[in-house]
Amino acid sequence: MAMIRNDWTKEEISEIYHKPVLDLIYQAATIHRQYHEPNEVQVCTLLSIKTGGCPEDCAYCPQAARYHTDIKVEKLLDVQTVLQKAQEAKEAGSTRFCMGAAWREVRNNRDFDKVLEMVKGVAQMGLEVCCTLGMLTEEQAIKLKEAGLYAYNHNLDTSEEFYDEIISTRTYQDRLNTIANANKAKISVCSGGIIGMGETIEDRIGMLHTLATLPEHPESVPVNALVPVAGTPLENQPKVSVWEMVRMIATARILMPKAMVRLSAGRVRMSVEEQALCFLAGANSIFAGDKLLTTPNPDYISDQEMFQVLNLKPRQAYKNELTESLNV
Ligand code: SF4
Q1: CB 300 within 8 A of CB 240
Q2: In Å, what is the CA distance from 139 to each residue of 149, 186, 216, 246?
Q3: Atom of ligand 1 at shortest distance to CA of 102?
Q4: Global pTM value
Q5: Which residues line the pocket of ligand 1, CB cutoff 6 A?
Q6: Chain segment 6-39, per-residue pLDDT in tens
Q7: Is the pLDDT of residue 326 over 60?
């Protein structure tokens, strides 16, 4: 059984990342099979509950108010609309429902109270509830936990060294502080990044190093390929190749064997064969539904067809807890 380690060095990670690709996939697939059911894939839905008008300047994001994109600014959705969307996602086979708001940080106001109600309602449906709401204090994290929040998404996006090139309105340390606050409230952390933003391989290794040396590995690690959006500073970035995604996913799987490694943004530009390679390399989670916040994603029907062709089974909700309670 591969050991769970939090003391990886950048040199070790670089050696893994640069292995011949077939050796890399084989090693990742072997570890994947030790810790997970290899034909099982978690299906998550991500809903934008508050779209656009964000004061931050993330260079990849069409929701930043300062970029001229065709995103329409919308206020926070009402609780009933969100619960209806969650019910539809559940009926379509999702077991995790993630709600995203284009906020810099959570504020203690009526909108946050509404989000707490949404979390409560979605948790009562038996779905794993996740939120991505920007920076969070420990007190706010505790309130979300008490409402039934299962996971908090807060991506590192890239390496500490490259971070300033992508975002200037907050620091890497701000990111790490929010992750620590979620941890303190005993909320699972979902944290990963995006490739294809002009970073070097060392930056990719640097980001994986930060994630894999956190005191506790994230429960989920989303690996995104940039989907360039017209009007953002990264609109002309070239497409990320499938081999770059495979290397990131396989390395993440080897470094963090227990994590759910999520093949996230960028699937819309991948064939079923390319996605199958990513699953073989250790990805075991996807976002379903034709939108990922505001960017396009494969629709339910294409994913259903892919699950049939590859004989994949959806992972049940709260599987970690069920497995632990049965001592399996
Ligand atoms: S990624 Fe999030 S924080 Fe950054 S601009 Fe977009 S909505 Fe705002």
Answers
A1: no
A2: 14, 12, 20, 38
A3: 7
A4: 0.93
A5: 54, 56, 58, 61, 63-64, 102, 134
A6: 999 999 999 999 999 999 999 999 999 999 999 9
A7: no
